[in-house]
Specification:
alpha+beta; single chain; 347 residues; five-stranded antiparallel beta sheet; two-stranded antiparallel sheet; globular; 44% helix; 2 domains; 11 helices
Length: 347
C-alpha cells in the first residue's frame, strides 16, 4: 500500500502563548544562533539547563529590577565557570535563552519543592506564585577536555538539587532537527503551569493555563526586563566561520602574539598554541576573574594544556615549554600578578 505524503507541519501559535513585544524577533535570533552549532559533532553538544534563581511573588509585586539584576549577575558567573577548566576563545561556546516560569503551589512536586528550598522558599500561600528564572542553552564543549568537566564545574558553582541538567542531542534526529526543536523549546513562552518530577519521568508537562491576571503579570514582567535581554549567547550568527591564520615559528608567535602566512610542519601545534594564548589573554583581561588565585589557576591549567601539545614537536626543548608558560602569564594578565608567584605555582 502506498503511504500518503504528509506535508510538513506549518508553524502555529503555541497554546497558552504569552503576548510580549519582540517575541518573534527573539525566536528568529535564537534559531540563527543555534544554527551556527549545526556542524559541531553531536558528542560535543549538550542541552544545558541552569536554575538561576527563584522568587516568591504576589500579584501586586513588581520584581522586574530584581530579575534583571539576577540575570546580569549570572552572565559573568557562567563565563567564569567556563574558564575554570577550559578556554572560551575558539573553544567552548553556547547559544540559548533565559526563560521565566510561573509555578503554582498546587503543582509543586517533591523535587521542585526541594529545589525551591535552595532559595529559601518553603511556605507558599494559595495566592502566592513562584517565578523560576533559568537558562536553556546548547553548549559546544570543545574548549574543555570533555562536556562532563564543564558540567562538574557548573554544579560546584550553582549547588543544589536539580539546579543543573545536561542532556545529549537525540540520536534519532539530525542536528538541524535537534537544534530546531530546542530553539522552539527555549522560546515557548507558555502561560501555563507545569508539573515536573519523578512522577512525570523527569519531563516537564503543562496542564493548567495561567489565570488571566497572572498571564498579564508575566507579560508585563518580560516587557519590563526587555525580552531582548533574555537572549544568552556567545556565538555570532554572522561569523559562523573565521579565516584561519598561520604562524611561521613558535618564538615569533610568543614574542609578537601575531601570525604569518607561511606553512610549517608544526602548523597544527602552533595554531593550537596561538588560539590558547589569545583565549587566555581575552578570558582574563576582559572577563576579570575575581581574585589573583583564580587568575593563576586559569594560567596554570592553560599552560599545562599547551605544554602537552608541545611535547611532540618540542620533545628536546623543555625550557621552551616553560618559557611558553611564562609568556602566556605575562601576556595574559601583565603586571596584575607577579611573575614570581606564577613560577612558584608552576614549580
Amino acid at each position: 500500500m502506498v503511504r500518503p505524503v504528509v506535508a510538513p507541519r506549518r508553524p502555529r501559535r503555541q497554546k497558552f502563548e504569552g503576548n510580549v513585544p519582540g517575541l518573534a524577533e527573539l525566536r528568529a535570533a535564537t534559531h540563527r544562533n543555534l544554527a551556527v552549532l549545526d556542524r559541531v559533532p553531536r558528542q560535543w553538544l549538550r542541552l544545558v539547563t541552569v536554575i538561576i534563581t527563584a522568587i516568591k511573588v504576589k500579584l501586586t509585586d513588581d520584581v522586574a529590577s530584581a530579575v534583571a539584576a539576577e540575570m546580569a549577575k549570572f552572565e559573568p558567573e557562567f563565563r567564569g565557570c567556563a574558564m575554570v577548566s577550559g578556554r572560551l576563545t575558539r573553544g567552548t561556546r553556547w547559544a540559548g535563552v533565559i526563560e521565566i516560569d510561573l509555578a503554582h503551589p498546587a503543582f509543586l512536586k517533591v523535587q521542585k519543592r526541594k529545589l525551591l528550598q535552595c532559595f529559601g522558599i518553603e511556605d507558599i500561600a494559595a495566592d502566592d506564585r513562584v517565578i523560576i528564572v533559568h537558562l536553556h542553552a546548547v553548549v559546544d564543549f570543545r574548549g574543555h577536555a570533555s562536556p562532563d568537566v564543564f558540567v562538574r564545574d557548573l554544579r560546584k558553582a550553582f549547588p543544589g538539587p536539580n539546579r543543573i541538567d545536561a542532556r545529549r542531542m537525540h540520536e534519532d534526529k539530525t542536528m538541524a532537527q535537534n537544534l530546531d526543536r530546542i530553539a522552539g523549546y527555549c522560546t515557548k513562552h507558555m502561560r501555563a503551569y507545569s508539573v515536573w518530577g519523578e512522577e512525570e519521568n523527569g519531563r516537564t508537562r503543562f496542564y493548567s493555563e495561567n489565570e488571566p491576571e497572572w498571564s498579564t503579570w508575566m507579560d508585563r514582567l518580560y516587557t519590563n526586563i526587555s525580552i531582548d535581554n533574555t537572549l544568552f549567547s556567545s556565538v555570532s550568527s554572522r561569523s559562523a566561520s573565521e579565516p584561519e591564520c598561520k604562524a611561521e615559528s613558535l618564538k615569533t608567535l610568543i614574542l609578537q602574539g601575531v601570525s604569518r602566512d607561511e606553512e610549517t610542519e608544526e602548523l597544527i601545534h602552533i595554531r593550537y598554541t596561538r588560539d590558547t594564548l589569545k583565549a587566555t589573554r581575552k578570558d582574563i583581561t576582559e572577563h576579570s576573574p575575581a581574585t589573583h588565585q583564580h587568575a593563576s589557576q586559569i594560567i596554570w591549567q592553560r599552560s599545562q594544556m599547551i605544554a602537552e601539545q608541545c611535547t611532540t614537536p618540542f620533545d628536546d626543548d623543555k625550557p621552551m615549554a616553560f618559557y611558553l608558560m611564562k609568556q602566556i602569564m605575562q601576556k595574559a594578565i601583565g603586571a596584575s600578578l607577579p611573575i614570581n608567584s606564577f613560577i612558584q605555582i608552576a614549580s
